[in-house]
Write a structure and sequence with these properties.
Largest sheet: 9 strands, mixed
Shape: globular
Distance between the termini: 86 Å
Strand order of the largest sheet: 10-9-11-12-8-13-14-15-16
Length: 466
């Protein structure tokens, strides 16, 4: 009997019953390809088995028969979590990895995704059994890299394989607690005509691993490559299927890496983890503020320190700005670490409400350390860095600032003020420039002077000396 097929878009993953030149969902031309459709097994034939693809091999697992349960009678009080060995990673995951979860780790090539997961193998408890599957390296190459990272490999099994059915068969035989796939784009199901890394292959292999994690309780970590836009390569549905999506960010020329969650079903997506890449692998940065402020120039125009909140953690960050007269009709604007449209809004407020003619100048804004800030509390520091660069006079060196800036130039209060003040005092600053008095009770640390300002004009006067 002829196998049924469906057509799907390699760009967005949209399925259609027939071939068309243009995808009806995303509008891209010549991206429709054909693949075999999924055929549901007959009743009872899939009990205790997980298929390795659309019509691939099956792997025997001890899977109980699925039956519906009333939500009222379900017990979720004993959520099973375990430590990965990295406190920074545990923080981003919401207190540790959840047993039976599917975690996707994405990032640019060479950023340290494989290094992070291989080091986890050496940090887990000895009673944990790990299967590390690589489609990009041989077993000998993995052994060499593990030796460089100091991973002894107790309870760690290595497999160099790309066929999903073989991976499932080995998993059924070994029954590990944790399965690491490096990477999902290298896996394939031979029953599909598409090449590895295509939308169909990635979607099909991830579905098999998803059922493995949910039905058997194996915790699965997937490595995902990113495209030139910075998103996970493959269909967008891949991010919907997994439980957690983690992005490993940072400049390859710098040693510091930032791990943040784009999706987390078991915790907050606001937490970040900070790592440093050394010759011996990744190490945790327990004090990100100290790291981000290291090497900060003193009494130099165009730099200002602010305190932002990342999840529950206050972090001091340095914002730098450069403002120069422009000879072009359209001045250049560039922002790195602060959302571009917000940076342009702050430039407009500075000119209109602050009285500084920055409209005809080239303006460049950068957050040191590769940190991406979306906290509105960094508005005031951005304004002061731009004003300092324009006036060519430094901001007060012993002061840190925070506050949200409105379109009329007024300053608004931000959240978690006491935590910010405590972090500012801990890092040795003597003063804090902040919006007017808050309704909440302030707990100013001893030795920290609080300077309250109402608008950006007052903030510029008290922070930049003429």
């Amino acid at each position: 009997m002829k196998q049924k097929t469906v057509f799907f878009c390699t760009d967005c993953g949209n399925e259609s019953p027939k071939w068309t030149g243009q995808c009806s969902a995303c509008g891209v031309w010549n991206t429709i390809v054909e693949q075999p459709s999924y055929t549901k097994p007959k009743s009872g034939s899939s009990s205790g088995k997980i298929r390795g693809g659309v019509s691939g091999k099956t792997a025997d697992f001890n899977i109980p028969r699925s039956t519906p349960h009333e939500l009222l009678n379900l017990d979720a009080s004993n959520e099973l979590r375990f430590s990965t060995g990295f406190r920074e990673l545990d923080r981003v995951l919401g207190g540790g990895a959840v047993v039976g979860s599917l975690v996707l780790v994405g990032g640019a090539p060479g950023i340290g995704k494989s290094t992070l997961l291989l080091q986890i193998c050496g940090l887990l408890k000895k009673e944990s059994k790990v299967l590390y599957v690589s489609g990009e390296e041989s077993e000998r190459q993995i052994k060499m890299r593990a030796g460089r990272l100091g991973v002894k490999g107790d309870g760690v099994f290595v497999l160099s394989e790309t066929e999903i059915s073989e991976i499932l068969s080995n998993t059924a035989e070994l029954m590990p607690d944790i399965l690491i796939i490096d990477s999902i784009q290298t896996l394939y199901n031979p029953e599909l005509t598409a090449s590895p890394g295509s939308v169909g292959q990635v979607k099909d292999c991830t579905m098999s691993l998803l059922r493995l994690s949910k039905d058997v309780g194996v915790t699965v970590f997937l490595v995902g490559h990113v495209n030139k836009e910075g998103a996970i390569a493959g269909p967008k549905v891949l991010e919907h299927m997994v439980d957690c999506v983690l992005y490993f960010e940072g400049e390859r020329s710098m040693n510091y890496r930032i791990l943040r969650a784009a999706k987390n079903r078991y915790g907050s997506t606001n937490e970040i983890g900070v790592f440093e890449m050394l010759d011996s692998g990744l190490t945790e940065v327990a004090n990100p503020s100290e790291m981000l402020l290291s090497g900060r120039p003193e009494m130099t125009p165009g730099t200002c320190v602010t305190c932002v909140i990342e999840g529950t953690r206050p972090i001091l960050a340095e914002i730098q700005a450069l403002v120069t007269p422009s000879s072009a009709n359209m001045p250049r604007r560039n922002s790195n670490g602060i959302e571009y449209n917000r940076a342009m809004m702050l430039l407009a407020v500075l000119q209109q409400r602050g009285g500084l003619r920055v409209g005809g100048c080239d303006a460049y804004i950068n957050v040191i350390g590769g940190l991406s800030i979306d906290d509105p509390g960094a508005d005031l520091a951005t304004i002061l860095a731009l004003a300092s660069a324009y006036k060519d006079k430094p901001v007060r060196g012993d002061a840190a600032v925070f506050g949200e800036v409105g379109l009329t130039g007024e300053l608004r209060q931000v959240s978690q003020i006491n935590q910010r003040l405590a972090e500012i005092a801990r890092m040795g600053f003597k003063a804090c420039i902040m919006p007017g008095k808050s309704k909440s009770k302030l707990q100013a640390p001893p030795g920290l002077e609080l300077i309250h300002v109402k608008n950006i004009g007052e903030a510029i006067k008290v922070s930049i000396k003429e």
